[in-house]
Amino acid sequence: MDFSFEAVLPTTPDRIWTLMIDIERMAACIPGCEKIEEQERLKLYGAVMKQKIGPFKLEVPAQINVESYEEPSFVNAAATGKDKFTGTTLTVSLKVKVEPEGEGASKFSVNAQLAVAGRLASLGYSVIKKKAEENFVEFERRIKEQLAQV
Which of 26, 71, 104, 122 is paired with 88 by a 20 to 30 Å CA distance? Predict the structure, then answer.
């Protein structure tokens, strides 16, 4: 499943990058992200993702590998995890781009490829896509809130 989201944020790419590498603050922007742990700076992280999608409540311990990045323009990462209750396995390839967008603003783009195996896959693309869209709307609200605090 492929997903793409964009948001225009009222700040410069440098300020967004500063937020992105502040793991605790960035995790606070991601709906359902708990227990984030930096294992190797700008390389390897562990996190627990909690979500309710359809009838399923998921708790997915995940490993997040930063595959490449260029400050303050992009991050390519991959994450994998498995929910022990439903047996659902999630694998995500993520590309995040930050580009200047006019005076004092930036375009924040996310392209994700998600593979779902297990019971959650039985819900189908439309249910999972709807949840992803809801999460991105909430993420955008939270990141704007975090940026306003700096």
Answer: 26
The range of the structural domain enclosing residue 74 comes to 2-149
pLDDT tens digits, 85-114: 999 999 999 999 999 999 999 999 999 999
- For the chain, the average pLDDT equals 94
Distance between CA atoms of 91 and 66, rounded to whole angstroms? 14
What global pTM score does this model have? 0.88
pLDDT digits (tens, 9 = 90+) for 114-125: 999 999 999 888
Indicate the number of domains in the chain.
Answer: 1
Dihedral in degrees, nearest 10, Cα atoms 67, 70, 71, 72: -100
Write the burial class of residue 149 (CB in 10 Å: 0-12 exposed, 13-18 middle, 19+ buried). exposed
Whole-number Å distance between alpha carbons of 131 and 51: 9
Give me the long-range contacts of 140-147 (CB less than 8 A, separation at least 24).
140/7, 142/28, 142/29, 142/30, 142/31, 143/7, 143/9, 143/19, 143/29, 143/108, 144/9, 144/10, 146/19, 146/25, 146/28, 146/29, 147/9, 147/10, 147/11, 147/15, 147/16, 147/19
